[in-house]
Amino acid sequence: MLHIYCPYCEELREEEEFHPKGQAHITRPADPDACSDEEWGDYLFFRDNPRGIHHEMWVHAIGCRKFFNVTRNTVTYEILETYPMGEQPHFTAEYPEGKPADQLNDAQQEPSRQEGVHV
Amino acid sequence: MSEHTSATTATGINMYDVRPTAEVPAESPLAWSYHHTGHPGVSQRSRVVIRERALLGHVVLRGGAIVLDEAVRQVLGFGLPARPNTLSQDPSGERSAQWLSPDEWLVIVPGGEEFSLEAKLREALGDAHYAIVNVSGGQTLLELEGEAATELLMKSTPYDVHPAGFPVGKGVTTVFAKSNLILRRPAEDRWELVLRRSFADYLYRWLLDASQEYAIGVDD
């Protein structure tokens, strides 16, 4: 059993309470009508299957029922971090030990979690 | 329809009192279970006692914490819990608000108050972006007391119910006996289980079975 840290409940919970929901950080093409069939097909059906660090969406299905992101090592099953929707990972394939401090700058904006409603 | 069973708020939302008068007979979700499974009495040997608090007013609030907190404070006299997985109550313990998710809270009030509570909250919230749903018919509340209550919970849920990890004033939604419920601890010696009505019979029978060795008693 994995113990997974829910960034919204702010505590570790049993794996049983969660469901994996596939690859994270997939952005919908801004203008679907301008996409080629291949681009649209890639967006809809094709997912990465890396050996090593992978970013996934999980949902705290029996709990707060919020989606969040998980950085997981697909070889060791180690969960390196969990972070709320809208944030960027600290651990990536280029930086398996975590991004250096100067890479963690501007884009890291804290969503208004207490407010709940994103503006 | 008479005036107090339905109302329209200033912002044009229609509200209906789902249980307008006390004369309409209402049964708790466990009525059939009591009839069919029975309810062992409380005895000297009972180390766990369960008691149903049937037909309370359960209201789910969704929206921004700051706006809702202000409205709840105005209407109920106490604010929403500030931290995840916690519970706030009025001094009598009759009314409570629990954090369910970053934008969702469960308010439980004595039965019959939920309709006026909803109306007052809607009035206080005005044009704010929010949702209020009366879920009283969908769930029921069981109180669990006795020295073996923690042992019974340990059999049923993977969540850590040790007093160190589950202080008074905490409340979580978690897995319970292959189903799920809201588990909360409003007082030192009392636990509360908020069950969905569709799971109520199953969980009631689970609790009776799991605590047979503690000579469980059902308090009417």
From TrEMBL, chain A:
<protein>
    <submittedName>
        <fullName>Sarcosine oxidase subunit delta</fullName>
    </submittedName>
</protein>
<dbReference type="InterPro" id="IPR006279">
    <property type="entry name" value="SoxD"/>
</dbReference>
<dbReference type="Pfam" id="PF04267">
    <property type="entry name" value="SoxD"/>
</dbReference>
<feature type="region of interest" description="Disordered">
    <location>
        <begin position="88"/>
        <end position="119"/>
    </location>
</feature>
<dbReference type="InterPro" id="IPR038561">
    <property type="entry name" value="SoxD_sf"/>
</dbReference>
